[in-house]
Amino acid sequence: MTSKNTNAALMLHPAANQTHKAFEVYNFAEKIPLVIECMACYDNIFMVGTYSGQILIYEINQVLEPVFDKSIKITKKPIQQIEVVKEFNIVLVLFDYQIHVIDLEKYQLQYSITKSKNCSLFSTSVSKDKKLLRLVVACKRKIQFYYLSNQINSKFMELISDLELNDVPRTLEITSENLVIFSLKKDFFYYELPSTSAGLGTSSELPAQKLNSGSRSIDPLCYKLHNDNFLIAFDENKSVLFDAKGAPILSYPIEWSGCPSFICNIGFYLIAIIPNTNTVEILTMEPSSTSVQLIEFNKESSSTISSSLGSSFTSKIVDFGLGGLGSAAASAPEKLKILKSNKKSVCYVANQSSVWCLSPVNINDQINSAILLKNFDLGLALMSAQSLFNQVTINEIQEDKHLLVQPFYSLSFLQQKMDENLSRKLRNMHALSLFVQKKFVDSFQLFQKMKTDPSHLIAFFPGLLPDGYRARLNLDDYYQSFEPKELEDGVAGLIDYLQFKRNEFLKTDDLALSLEPLIDGRPVIRKKISLLEIIDTTLLKCYLISKESLVQFFLRRDPNFLHLEESERLLNQHNKTNELIILYEKKEAHEKALNLLLTESSKSNSSLSGLKHLVNYMKKIGTKNLALVFKYGKSVIETDYHWGLKIFIGGNFDKLDNLLEEKARQKDENVKETRSLLADSDMVGDTLLSTFLKIDLSESKNKKKNQDSLNLDLSTLIDDDDEFLKDLNHAEVVAFLDEQIEPRELSAYLVKVYLQYCVYVWKDREARINNKLVDIYQAFVDHNYALPGQSVDAEKPKSYKQVLKFLLNYTNNYEPLSTLAKLDLDKYPEERAIVLGKMGHHKDALSIYVNILNDTQKAEAYCEYIYSQSYIAGSKDVFYELLQLYLNSDYEEIRIDASIRLLNMHSKEIGTVKTLELLPAQLMKCKNLSQFFENMLDRIVRTKHDTQIRNRLMVALQLQVHENKIMCQDKKFVVTHEQICHECNKRMGRSAMVRYPNGVLIHYGCLKNSETILKTSNT
């Protein structure tokens, strides 16, 4: 052991002959010529009950000198028990096995409680409002209950009926919470008094509430303390403390040096007589049961009372006419038998002939003694309990210059007044003494309750604080050396402490941060952010020492206050590459993280090998750090363009091209099927409506009818984890892929795939994004781009052209005018027709189908769809416009056959009058128009017939309504003043009323409550 630790050990363990002195002993009355049986005291008055039936009354002055006041002779029988009730100005005296009431001022017998005969013991309790006194009396095998009010001339009255028991109570107490505790044989029971004074039936059985089992080797002991708690002895040297409601207060028993016979308390001190050794033991209850002083009583105790007292007190006897003065025993035993305190700061202990007074030593001296003995628990308890000892003035604390202790434990730093500063320093002493003893858990638990600067505690562990800051704290005299196991335990305790303080400081305002030094004169941290930075960085060091598996979890916590450079150095020192990436992410040092990931990606033996980790990191930071993503993304694309795309696109993007090409092929197949049906039949109905054109124009301007007729199933392309990628700035990403990636073929491919995701997956409605996708598709049709390393496919432009038509039909978000300007009529006629249709230029679109594509089936299918969408402008004239195109066509075959088919199938949509005006004379003579005229005449006749039927139905309905009106007006009823409401039985008067078909009249206001009448009426 080093000299430093040796000094610490000497400092923490006082010499064997040093003991704490809590109470001074004064010889109060010695060799009284009477046998003492009982005692009572209050304020500065002390009473002694004797075997000869006399009560001796003393008054104690300020210097604890007794002044004999008087002697009262009330009986020849021994005084068994005395109890003073100052609140009611009475003294209860038990003698001759009966309770008597004496006036406290005149010491005159007032009356006796007759029913209390055969009483062996009693107990009292004053209510909290001091208006009621409760008395419980043990009389043979029963307990009696009385009460006394604070009214003038009131007497004890029976509270409730007696409680029958199966044995004689050995002990009896009552608390302010109406809880009665008593013992039978070796067991303790409690009984709760009712809150009212209502009488209860007599119980012949034991109460069911068993409190505790006492010791089998000693008599049952139960003592009520002045704070209304009570102690029960359940073993020869152990007692349990209960509150006034019967609940245990402490989690541990109070242990004595022997078997106690009498117990009382002054402040937080418990005082008991240990009869086997004829001593009085004094101990504290919290934080643990600790004996602080043993006082031994012997025959050589010097008297402080005048020797003439024995002969002079008889002249002051107040005669009650109950007998003369009894004689004292020839030789009184020396064993202590009685212990009483005055509820403030004085305790009396007596044997059969002598009385001693125990008075607390000056509290400042006690605190000094506790510090010198290193009993800091006691020192703190004394400071917090000054008022309990009735001491207000605080004297100067003197320094013991001869005490050989380290500077931290000297008393030179103590203030002259006992204040919060002294209390803080005592707590620091206590906690640090435990730390020196390597009791880290207990030490840090105490530090958690204090405002000590955590950096001062961190400094006790080597290597946790920077050397410069550690030197500034100047704590070299107090540093300890640790064995490996001690260091492990200390670091574990430090982690718990720092975690607790971290959570505490997070809830504290920066202005409210007020730390205290562990040792006076040392600097403390004033800024909250600096303190949290030290705590988090220290915690990282501790985890790296003892709990490496928790380092990643710790680094991911929010908020994170780690010092970046120091943490980076530590993680590099421990080869924690993954953890270093987490640190960079939390501290937003993204460029450092990307550099490290890019370097590690090329190392085959690294846990971060490959591009996956780099890509995933760029995905996380992309929304706010696009410039960095573009900078490092270019390297990824040059290495592997598939991984490069995954930076900006989630899910399986490889399937999207195939899905779009398949959809485009399905549309062309539907068109071919439609043509085949038209070729097989002259009848063109709704079933022949071109699926292709339905899809082409499914995007309507009316949102209520906007449906995704393409039915693209993109669920397999969407990755929920990458959903946030749709919030990227798509225009910037497209510009990056288009302008910074080489060669052009690769750039065009990347832009195409990304734009497809924007439009089809993320539903981007921005016009320039949709326009750009149209341009890319057109570029692929024109240039037939192939990826580097792949051969050129001559059939690929056809596929791209189908996908382009699919896009033009799929969305309305591109700009039609600019798109139309880019589509050459010779190369993209059908695409132009789709765009013209989107713009509402139906005649121009039909002109392309009829005059350029020579595809009348597509033209008529186009008309059918547009006509069915009534919200499209000009939808009702589209067939008429198509007929005009047919008749103005240069092709004779189209003019005749197509016009006839159109007239036969869609005469209703074109309109009869318009059609007749438009048809040329040579076409009017054509026999093939017979179907057109037949349909027209049939439609006119059917319309006329329907109109006639509707008119007749309206006339019949009018007659029926008129008939019902006549029937209702045919009935007459008279309401007189004598008629009453069938619901409320009041006169109808002139109020609004309701008449049921059965003639019942009720007020209109009573209508809601008349359901029964209504049902009867309906029946």
Automatic annotation (TrEMBL):
Pfam family, one: zf-Vps39_C
Broad class of where this protein is predominantly found: membrane
Highest taxon listed in the record's lineage: Eukaryota
Keywords per UniProt: Membrane
GO BP: autophagy; endosomal vesicle fusion; intracellular protein transport
Alphabetical list of InterPro entries matching this protein: Clathrin_H-chain/VPS_repeat (IPR000547), CNH_dom (IPR001180), Vam6/VPS39/TRAP1 (IPR032914), VPS39/TGF_beta_rcpt-assoc_1 (IPR019452), VPS39/TGFA1_Znf (IPR019453), WD40_repeat_dom_sf (IPR036322)
Membrane topology value: Peripheral membrane protein
Subcellular location(s) of the protein: Endomembrane system
UniProt GO cellular component terms: cytoplasm; endomembrane system; membrane
CHCR repeats: 725-891
Domain CNH, chain residue ranges per copy: 33-310
Family per similarity comment: Belongs to the VAM6/VPS39 family.
Protein name per its UniProtKB record: Vam6 Vps39 isoform X2
Protein source organism: Brachionus plicatilis
